[in-house]
Write a structure and sequence with these properties.
The complex is a heterotrimer of chains A (211), B (638) and C (102). Chain A is mainly α and 211 residues long. In chain A, 77% of the residues lie in helices and 0% in strands. Chain A contains eight helices and no strands. In chain A, α1 packs antiparallel against α2 (44-65), α2 runs antiparallel to α3 and α3 runs antiparallel to α4 (93-117). In chain B, β3 (69-78) and β4 form a beta hairpin. Chain B is mostly helical and 638 residues long. Chain B starts with 7 loop residues before the first helix and ends with a helix. Chain B has helices at 8-23, 32-55, 93-116, 123-142, 146-164, 171-202, 207-215, 221-238, 247-250, 256-265, 270-277, 279-282, 286-309, 313-333, 337-365, 381-395, 401-416, 419-444, 451-455, 462-477, 484-490, 495-499, 514-535, 540-548, 550-557, 562-608, 616-637; strands at residues 57-58, 61-62, 69-78, 83-90. Chain B has 27 helices and four strands. With 102 residues, chain C is mainly alpha-helical. Helices cover 75% and strands 0% of the residues of chain C. Chain C has three helices and no strands. Chain C is elongated. The chains are: A mainly alpha (211), B mainly alpha (638), C mainly alpha (102). At the A-C interface, α2, α3, α4, α5 and α6 of A face α1, α2 and α3 of C.
Chain lengths: 211, 638, 102
């Protein structure tokens, strides 16, 4: 049974390559951070933050730079898991769990399915468009503006307080009941739209017979 | 019916017009009897108004019981009283001269038309249009304000256009209608400018208010002179005065009864009526009044000379009309409103009589050129007799109407005008006698020059001759209204001279100066004699005169080359200017402005369309740049 | 205590990198993935502000939750469109869908 559904050979190489990259890049970073923690220069949350920061940066850059789509998809998984860690640090366990479940479990799986279904052989190798230099400049400026804005402003920060699942759920369905329902409707519509879009043309057949 | 209800008068023929214009096909006899009955009703009501007017006339003064100026309603009120157009009627002696003339001549013409237009195409439409004309004309003479008058003025112009072009299948008729309309339009623009100028200075259109404002010194003299000359331009166009007289001879393309009603008795005297109505203002602007005087003088002389040589029987009468209108303007020019209105009154009767008589001739012989007529008095005795009466009235032979009124004008001119002007006008009166004699001789006496049409000529049916006879009687007796005893008999003490005089002026007492009347009579008789010598028999002397001075003859036949002059001006100046404007329009406005803009857009579109690559990343990039720009602007502003 | 600026810089970085991916990539699937990165950056921003600046600390989280939800819906719908595009054009490159050009 498993022979009939072979895991693509790519995936083997991916797992190996991923392990190597993780070991080579994250290992030293983790060691440095750990030593800093032990010396007492940083706290435990800061260790988590910088580790997650490294994962996100590597994952995001991998997503947008890797020429192979499958590699990019796996890099995206790493980045999104890093984001889940950030949610933990921001005192919302629920969001972290949703992030892992929805992205790691749903979205990325969908993307990989789509990859497999559209794996056209005649696609050109180059996956980057001709406007890459402009994109780079614009993006650089955009990022610079955002970072400058973040640094420039004095944020009167308050202490982070954890919100429990019970509180979250109670308030979500109490204060935001209508938006939740609307989001449910939205999801329903999206589902219907996806089905209508993805299924084969019903008219195609009748058009052919008409011709 | 009192004077305050005169608005009913134009309403009746208007109703007839609507009825006949829409439904004449469904009415027996195409509804001609409705038009005649309606007009009879109007004549009856005019009689009632006359009685009411006479009741308020005592001690040579007009004392209106109800108020001569009746405001029916506010037609338009813009800006809460800033710009008010009223529908108002005004009745005074001048109106009371016009109303019987218009309604009675219209009734005669309508009755006559039943015979004349018998069997024509568009028979019902003819009566409808004629009713429309009468409605507009009645509205014109009862208007209490200038804007309402202008509306009626254009209404009669429209009716004139429609009726001149009644036989529009004929090229010449269509062109004559167009010419009449456009030529009078030149004057109408002047009239409108004059009305606006007067309104601008006083803020009112009401004629009596304007007059009292002018007498109170609301205008500077220059302003008043300019406004009144513009106003007079309208009268020049409508009354066919020099230099806008060219349309009236061509207007004879219309049916002859139309010429009798519109182009002899009523519409063309609208200009005289207007100036007579505004005369108290002209008295304050001597230059404007002189313009009226000399325009009338030139017109009277020119038209009379042209009438001498015209060969079409109706055109002779048309030139005669223009000339007689010139007489009236001369009277107005020296301030003799009584004389002018009196001449208008008598002229309406004898000139419509002459036109209807000529119509009778044309109806019988189907000939209009005097070359094709002659000797008709044996075949058409009634027409000939009435025509001769009309001609004698026109020539100014005593006891006939024209004698009294023309004498009044000449007398007024001698009293208060330059003496050379009197000489000119007396000479014109002589010419008048000459050409009336010529017309009668060539039409009704001598040997016939066209035996074929002569042979089947016959007297017109009674429905045509009866109006002729009635008008002939009026052409004889209407002059007697000037005499004191006649006026007293009818309730106008002192005759027409006491009836018609300007507001605040002095009544004009009619006196028959024996010496003066003798001179005038001798003039008229000399004219008759000259006419007889030249044109009796086979008109050998007239032909000899033609041989003797062919250039002069040609000048008169070609009407002083005025038409050619206008055509030349139109060709050279107006069409030249039009060509420049057309060039500007074509090259600059159209090709550079309109097309140029379109081509620029087209070019840019052709170039810039390539930014629409259809590739989503390009669009997203543009969007990102835009968002970035907005952020930068927002940040740098805060 | 991690300063708020760290999170903001991280979210800005994620957003910018995602934008780069959207602009520079040709494959529709890669563009979708880049959009996910942008959304993640925004969601982090919401959560950070909620945690640090809002005494209640709740509304921002709700927004982040909705962002995640809408992102999931968007991916589902967009992948349907990608499949459609692939079926019509035999490719998943967005350059292929250029019928709307001049």
């Amino acid at each position: 049974m498993f022979e009939r559904l072979p895991v693509p050979a790519q995936f083997d190489r991916l797992i190996v390559a991923g392990g190597i990259v993780t070991g080579v890049i994250l290992g030293p970073v983790f060691l440095v951070l750990l030593s800093l923690l032990l010396v007492g220069r940083i706290s435990a949350p800061e260790l988590v933050f910088w580790l997650g920061f490294t994962v996100i940066v590597i994952g995001a850059l991998g997503t947008v730079l890797l020429p192979n789509i499958v590699h990019a998809a796996f890099a995206l998984i790493a980045a999104l898991l890093g984001v889940a860690a950030m949610y933990l640090l921001l005192a919302s366990e629920f969001l972290a769990l949703v992030q892992v479940l929805v992205y790691g479990g749903g979205v990325v799986l969908l993307i990989i399915f789509a990859l497999m279904m559209t794996n056209a052989q005649d696609d050109p190798i180059v996956t980057d468009g001709s406007q890459k230099p402009f994109a780079f400049i614009v993006t650089l400026l955009f990022g610079a503006v955002l970072v400058a804005a973040a640094i420039n402003i004095q944020w009167g920060a308050e202490s982070v307080s954890l919100i429990t699942f019970r509180d979250f759920g109670a308030r979500l369905f109490h204060d935001f009941m209508v938006p939740v329902i609307i989001v449910g409707v939205l999801l329903d519509i999206a589902l219907s739209g996806a089905i209508v879009n993805a299924r084969p043309n019903i008219d195609e057949h009748s058009e052919e017979t008409a011709q | 019916m009192g004077m305050e209800h005169v608005w009913i008068l134009p309403a009746i023929p208007m109703a007839v017009f609507v009825l006949l214009g829409l439904f004449n096909g469904y009415i027996p006899r195409r509804g001609d009897f409705i038009a005649v009955l309606g007009m009879s009703l109007v004549v009856l009501l005019v009689g009632l108004v006359l009685l009411d007017f006479q009741g308020s006339f005592s001690d040579h003064e007009f004392h209106p019981a109800v108020g001569a100026n009746t405001y029916a309603f506010d037609w338009l009120n813009i800006g809460n009283g800033f710009f008010v157009i009223e529908f108002s009627t005004y009745v005074d002696a001048i109106t009371m001269v016009m109303l019987p003339v218009v309604s009675f001549v219209a009734l005669m013409v309508l009755v006559y038309s039943i015979g004349y237009m018998h069997g024509e195409n568009r028979y019902g439409w003819y009566f409808a249009t004629l009713s429309f004309f009468v409605a507009a004309m009645l509205l014109l003479v009862i208007s209490g304000n200038l804007l309402q008058l202008y509306l009626a003025w254009e209404g009669v112009g429209l009716a004139s256009y429609l009726l001149i072009g009644f036989y529009w299948e004929r090229q010449s008729a269509a062109e004559a209608a167009k010419k009449a309309f456009i030529t009078t339009r030149v004057g109408d623009v002047g009239l409108l400018i004059g009305i606006i100028l007067l309104w601008k200075a006083t803020g009112t259109f009401d004629i009596q208010e304007l007059i009292s404002a002018a007498q109170a010194g609301a205008f500077s003299e220059t302003y008043l002179t300019i406004s009144l000359i513009f106003l007079f331009l309208g009268a020049v166009g409508k009354s066919a005065q020099f230099p806008l007289h060219v349309w009236l001879p061509d207007a004879m393309e219309g049916p002859t009864p139309v010429s009798a009603l519109i182009h002899a008795a009523t519409m063309v005297v609208a200009g005289v009526y207007l100036i007579a109505r505004m005369l108290p203002m002209y008295e304050l602007a001597p230059i404007a009044q002189d313009v009226v005087l000399y325009t009338g003088l030139i017109t009277a002389l020119m038209a009379a000379t042209m009438g001498l040589v015209a060969s079409d029987i109706k055109r002779v009468l048309a030139f005669s009309t223009v000339s007689q209108l010139g007489f009236m303007f001369v009277a107005l020019g020296v301030g003799a409103v009584t004389a002018a209105m009196f001449h208008l009154f008598t002229h309406a009767f004898f000139k419509s009589l002459l036109f209807l008589g000529s119509g009778s001739v044309i109806h019988a012989t189907e000939q209009q050129e005097v070359e094709g007529l002659g000797g008709l008095r044996k075949k058409m005795p009634i027409t000939a007799a009435t025509f001769i009466i009309g001609s004698l009235a026109l020539a100014g032979i005593p006891i006939f109407a024209g004698f009294f009124s023309k004498d009044e004008i000449l007398h007024a001119l001698m009293d208060s005008g330059p003496s050379w002007a009197y000489m000119v006008l007396a000479g014109t009166a002589l010419l008048t006698a000459i050409y009336s004699t010529r017309l009668v001789l060539l039409t009704f006496f001598g040997e016939t020059r066209n035996t074929e049409s002569y042979s089947h000529a016959h007297e017109s049916p009674r429905i045509m001759t009866v109006p002729l006879c009635i008008l002939a009687v009026l052409a004889t007796v209407s002059g007697f209204f000037a005499i004191d005893q006649v006026g007293k008999l009818l309730g106008f003490e002192g005759g027409i001279g006491y009836l018609v005089y300007p507001v605040g002026g002095h009544p004009h007492e009619f006196k028959l100066y024996v010496l003066f009347a003798t001179v005038a009579t001798i003039t008229a008789l000399v004219g008759l004699l000259i006419g007889w010598i030249y044109w009796h028999g086979n008109a050998q002397r007239a032909n000899a005169a033609k041989e003797w001075a062919p250039e002069l003859h040609q000048l008169l036949v070609r009407r002083y080359y005025m038409d050619e002059l206008y055509q030349g001006i139109i060709n050279r100046v107006i069409l030249g200017a039009a060509a420049v404007v057309a060039w500007f329009d074509k090259r600059v406005v159209n090709e550079t402005g309109v097309d140029g803009g379109a081509q620029l857009i087209n070019f840019l579109g052709w170039r810039l369309k390539f930014t629409q690559t259809g590739r989503i990343p390009n669009y997203v990039l543009a969007m990102a740049v835009g968002v970035l720009a907005v952020i930068i602007v927002a940040v740098s502003n805060s | 205590m991690i300063p708020l600026e760290n999170f903001l810089i991280l979210s800005g970085f994620l957003f910018a990198v995602g934008l780069y991916g959207v602009l520079a990539r040709r494959s529709a699937i890669l563009i979708l993935m880049s959009v996910e990165l942008m959304l993640a950056g925004v969601a982090i921003n919401f959560a950070a502000f909620a945690a640090y600046l809002d005494a209640d600390g709740f509304s921002g989280l709700i927004f982040a939750l909705f962002v995640i939800t809408v992102a999931a819906a968007e991916v589902g719908l967009a992948l349907g469109i990608v499949l459609r595009l692939f079926r019509e054009r035999r490719t998943s490159y967005v350059d292929a869908a250029n019928t709307l050009k001049w």
